[in-house]
TrEMBL record:
GO terms for molecular function: heme binding; iron ion binding; oxidoreductase activity, acting on paired donors, with incorporation or reduction of molecular oxygen, reduced flavin or flavoprotein as one donor, and incorporation of one atom of oxygen. The keyword Lipid metabolism does not apply. Its cofactor is heme. This is Cytochrome P450 CYP4/CYP19/CYP26 subfamily. The chain crosses the membrane at residues 6-25. The keyword Phosphoprotein does not apply. Its EC number is 1.14.13.184. Pfam families: p450 (PF00067). The lineage of its organism: Eukaryota, Viridiplantae, Streptophyta, Embryophyta, Tracheophyta. Heme binds at C428. It is a single-pass membrane protein. Belongs to the cytochrome P450 family.
Amino acid sequence: MDISLASLFAVIATALYLSLLILYLKTKLHKTINLPPGKIGWPLIGEMKDFALSCARGELEKFFSDRMGRYNSPDVFKTSLLGKKIVVFCSPAGNKFVFSNENKLVKSWVPDSASKIVLADHADVEKTAKLQIRTFAYEFLKPDVIQKYIKTMDSIISQHLDQEWAQKQTLTVYPIVQKLLFSLSCSIFMGIEDKNLTRKLEDQFEIVTSGLFSMPFDLPGTKVRRGMRAGYEMRSELRKIVRQKRSSENKDGNSGSVNLLSYLLSATDSEGKLFSEEEIACIVLAVLIGSQHTTSSLITNLVYFLADNPAVYDRVLKEQLEIRKLKVDDKQLLNWEDTKRMKYSRIVLNETLRIAPTAIGFFRDVIHDFNFAGYTVPKGWKIFLSPNTIHKNPKYYPNPDKFDPSRFEGKGPSPFTFTAFGGGPRMCPGNEFAPHLVLVFMHNLLIRFTWEKLIPKEKIIYDGAVNGPEHGLPIKLQRRCHEPEIDAS
């Protein structure tokens, strides 16, 4: 017994010694490398606590600007977030460098928390899904496909506003918009019209998205554990849908209307094999997250800023009424050409994304050591590109807290200073889908209603991977009695 106990202590002591030795050697190695300035913080936790507090206070840009100033480093600094050593790039030159070196020095990286929640716990399925998600997202979110969606968007949104908004005097914008867009996404991407099924999927969706950007600790009570459970349940429902759709198409011999799900059922991988039910479920879930969650946030923020800026509101309204007058009657739906005419509305949308970028940021994995701004970034570290490091920097946007769409008139912002959708080969696949969906929504909202905020000074905060008003944006709503006169001049 004593010998066994002594042996156990010897093993523990040896393991502890080796761990400390490895840590010492790594620390010594890093000291010989000219790493960017900054602090890694506590083991595992890093600076995640400060980061999360900044998000919750609606001061995310302060997290970055404080460190840029503290280390006198306007281009890069190091930190630790989500359990990873990270270099934050803070300048247009940094954005350009990363976007120009995709798959050369860096590659896309998804936080472990998101992978655990969205992807199945099977190595082969996870590998296939990761490779295919962006391919199919681009395929079904590209401009020539979006054109076909405009009338469907207009019809669904118009009906929703008449049924869900028109009878209300007050409502909270974010949750009702989120329900609408989830239903719309299910219809467009999967052909699901069953409201009970949509509601069943939606119940799990909010839990899934709330854990995407959190510490990747799979422990009871954590957002990741809840998200993983919700992700599993969503994929289970999606597998049933895939199975039913595949059976129906095999029986009928055709797929009927083409949507993302129908396309995936007949698509093959690099070896010519059809995708499994699990692989398709993972891909569809990822596209739902990418197309729906940030768009709900963007619409809510746009409603928020239009309420605070009456001159901007009036100009957007004028543009939308002019487009409405081109229609033969009130039942004629919007089309692609109509959304392309919404030029001022589009720059208002861009200014909303500048001042409150919906995406918290974009990650890259360093696949080769490289030098930037006089510092070495080692292989295996992660890069974090956050729009907040530049969008609120007065060097690039004077008086950055002012909502001023004119910044996007003429030549617009300088290159690599507006990155709401990322940039380069890895630009968000929804960079055209989301704006067109938002423009269709805003057209329908503006021609029907006026509104005012019930919490005038409500903060915009980050909760999980996206942002929005702290209380979901409660508003007082009023139906338009008549269309305002349009000044012909």
